[in-house]
Amino acid sequence: MNKVILLNKRPVGKPTADDFKFIEEETPVTQEGQVLLKTLYVSVDPYLRGRMSSAKSYTPPFELNKPIQSGIIAEVIESKNPNFKVGDFVSAIMGWKELQVSDGKNLLRVDGSAAPLSVYLGILGMTGLTAYLGLTEIGKPKAGETLVVSGAAGAVGSVVGQIGKILGCRVIGLAGSDEKTTMLTSKFGYDAAINYKTTTDVQAAIANAAPNGVDIYFDNVGGSISDAVLANVNQLARVPVCGAISVYNETEVPMGPRIQTTLVKNSILMQGFVVSNYVAKFPEAIKQLTSWLQEGKLTYTETIVNGFDHIPQAFLDLFEGKNEGKMIVKI
Amino acid sequence: MNKVILLNKRPVGKPTADDFKFIEEETPVTQEGQVLLKTLYVSVDPYLRGRMSSAKSYTPPFELNKPIQSGIIAEVIESKNPNFKVGDFVSAIMGWKELQVSDGKNLLRVDGSAAPLSVYLGILGMTGLTAYLGLTEIGKPKAGETLVVSGAAGAVGSVVGQIGKILGCRVIGLAGSDEKTTMLTSKFGYDAAINYKTTTDVQAAIANAAPNGVDIYFDNVGGSISDAVLANVNQLARVPVCGAISVYNETEVPMGPRIQTTLVKNSILMQGFVVSNYVAKFPEAIKQLTSWLQEGKLTYTETIVNGFDHIPQAFLDLFEGKNEGKMIVKI
């Protein structure tokens, strides 16, 4: 029998274990042209919260009583498709299942000898691409500029800061614990880090850490942290809006200061994005990231949780900030 | 004696007549290299509200007890500068004075025979440039897309809509009276117009007028009108943020729904701008606007108020929506 995790109900506010349902189904049978895949690593990501709701978005909502999907690294354990052989490792957005079949169309082959497999869900996967393309395509950093990153110790944020440093920026990170802020400066090369939970006046702390003002704000969190950063932006600042984890679980539309006046006064560009907007740039970006990784210019942190049964809890823990860097479940 | 209008005090909330002070000074004497200018037309614009405050912005605040400045068309009535002769017409950002001297450096010569002089404060001046460059550089309209314009009957808005039509868009305007909405469809070629003051559910009205969703939202007003438009945007929509007249007079920071989630879900680009960001594109833009004007593809409305003493009241009337199109004071 094959374990599968379904969307049981759409969360109201913060997701809970009840929103997920475990079932067992017959082990799938491989048809001609298909491969049978064994799940090795599952990526859990804040953006999945959006797909659990019924609101229209850039990807369709998950269907009730159907498997949740996310980034997965799997091994080919049976192949009736000439493009794949048993023992190949592949990456794709797939269902939360121990085993599943695929026609191979959306599978990306990954090289387990070039880097640890889990890295293809992180710094050499969607996480790294999101950081690199959001920062370079929207943030357009120039050497000497000041970059502020919120959710800086998260999977994307920790990569954004390192790339900002490689490109010559002064980089300031916002995170929610002293452990995280210490890691930002000691491990990821941030010039300064602010614990927004223990700092009374975050706006003043940013002003202090960014004496020349903020040229780029890579926003992973939204909410009042972003208000504090936007109060410090320079003329012609750029704001890649990657996520808004601080408000994903709100049941009322979250209210905050209107930002149009700030945008006009400072000629600010603010752009929401998902990495799939930049598919054409993936090969070039992966090449650059791989090269930096091999040169030792990029490092990463993973929080690895073990066991298929723990996938939902690993996802829920994201909203408690329990991860450092990329949160991955190893099966 | 020469009449001058000074900033008397910084407005709190909505500006009032008390914020301005009339004085008389000696008629200025022209030095070598200078010209003496007689003010003919004065532009009053919502953005001046920002310069009356002390907050830092893209242009420095007006100083207390110094002349207010705005776009002015003047005639050279005395010249000790070889580049200008008596009878020349010029345009510049200058003080609210009946007469003033200039060294000629920032004066742009305008041709009174090619178009009525007031037009160089409007459709062939900052207003037209703001509409054209904001729409084309940020909005990037493609034929077949849907464009929504707020403040659509205003100076900039009425031009934006017409350019949108020329470029093949479906164009929907938001304005605050039936007189204005009628003008939008009958005079400026808008496909649909919504009176936001008498429409109970503006969001639904926009959805109805934009069955394919909104691809570009040219925002002149901010506030709850913008909330209603943003609820209808398509994936990859562009939002040039030109102004926020609805909140310029608020004394508290205006609150509203946070928009980061909307930006991320729909990969929206939102960009505040001032026309001076695009100085390099002015010549090309003026050429295009002049050509459309001469071909009869563009029309415009002016509200002309007569008399130097009425400049402050004309400015105050902008916030009551008393203007149709460009508000100009003729001296």
Mean pLDDT of chain A: 93
Indicate the overall shape of chain A.
Answer: globular
Strand content of chain A: 25-35%
CATH fold group of the largest domain in chain A: Quinone Oxidoreductase, Chain A, domain 1
Counted by DSSP, the helix tally of chain A is 9
Largest interface: A-B, 40 and 40 residues
What attributes does this structure have?
Quinone Oxidoreductase, Chain A, domain 1, 6-stranded parallel β-sheet, Rossmann fold, 28% strand, 331 residues, 7-stranded mixed β-sheet, alpha/beta
Structure description:
The structure is a homodimer of 331-residue chains. Chain A has 331 residues and is of the alpha/beta class. Chain A has two domains: 2-122 and 300-330, Quinone Oxidoreductase, Chain A, domain 1, CATH 3.90.180; 126-276, NAD(P)-binding Rossmann-like Domain (Rossmann fold, 3-Layer(aba) Sandwich), CATH 3.40.50. Helix content of chain A is 25%, strand content 28%. Chain A is built from nine helices and 16 strands. Chain A has helices at residues 48-52, 126-139, 155-166, 178-186, 202-209, 223-230, 260-266, 282-294, 311-318, and strands at residues 2-7, 20-25, 35-43, 69-79, 89-95, 99-102, 108-110, 146-150, 170-175, 192-195, 214-218, 233-241, 255-257, 269-272, 302-306, 326-330. In chain A, the strands form three sheets. In chain A, strands 3, 4, 5, 6, 7, 15 and 16 form a seven-stranded mixed beta sheet that branches. In chain A, β11 (214-218), α6 and β12 (233-241) form a beta-alpha-beta unit. The longest helix of chain A is centred in the middle third of the chain and has 14 residues, at 126-139. The mean pLDDT of chain A is 93. Chain A binds chain B through residues 50, 55-58, 219, 222-223, 226, 235-236, 241-244, 247-248, 253-274, 277, and chain B through 50, 55-58, 219, 222-223, 226, 235-236, 241-244, 247-248, 253-274, 277.
